[in-house]
Amino acid sequence: MHEKYFTTGEFAKMCNVEKHVLFHYDSINLFKPAITKENGYRYYSYDQYFTFYVIINLKMLGMSLNDIKIYLENRNPSLLLKLLEEKSVEVAEKIKWFQDLQKTIETMKRSTTEALNSDDTICLKALPKEIILRSDNIENTSGKSFASFMQEYTKFSKSLGITIQESIGSILSVKNLQNKKFFTLSYLYIRSNSFIKGKTVIRKPGVYLCGYFKGRYEDTYEIYTKMLNYADKNNITLGEYSFEEYLVSDIAEKELNNYITKIMIETCENKAICR
User: Fold this and answer.
1) For the whole model, what pTM was predicted?
2) Residue 166: is its pLDDT beyond 70?
3) TM segments (predicted)?
4) N or C: which end of the chain has fewer CB within 10 A?
5) How sure is the predictor about 273, in pLDDT bands with cuts at 50, 70 and 90?
6) Share of the chain residues as helix, strand and coil, in percent rounded to the nearest 5
């Protein structure tokens, strides 16, 4: 036989695949040998090496074998451009997904480290501004369950292109806290890296009364009571809202009594944060 033809074993070795891959491609009429002898021996031509790598490259683009077969039968430059444009969009979406995942991982690492280094000290801290994605006001939606709202908030996040859900924080009205309404939420929020008009707001920079609570969420009234008493004792005028972030929750800890919640209450120590 002319030396430009190769046995299945030789061709498989050239292409760095197992022989059964070539057998499978032959059986589904995707990539057939140039010659098949009566004894069943298959032989591939030198030119087929390049066609085979077209298949490999299309597989790397995420195409199914069936779609590759259709493409090979109809391929032309215009069809290739259309295919590449579609795959470019898909790759961009995957890149964003992994970037969001990396940011979420880093956020979780920082939050967990902060929780492990926390104590029960209540103190004033100067905090920088924070861009947050905030939900619609839920303070007066008493007829709606928290679970139902969470479903709506997840849809809200997805509508903004948030592919990886970060930990959701809560915003509570200081007025409600002072009236012992410790579980009446005003908003839910997550942090953001960019401003989206009509969707994001700025958590104002300024001095916040901060504290950490270790225990069940249902018992966070204990830390709020202490923080409100601390403010009264030290003549600290509080601002409009308190922000809760859940540094240790069910993803890290199975015991509810070991959950750690961070509390940040706006104060009027810096007039810029008060209305």
Assistant:
1) 0.69
2) no
3) none
4) C
5) very low
6) 45, 25, 35
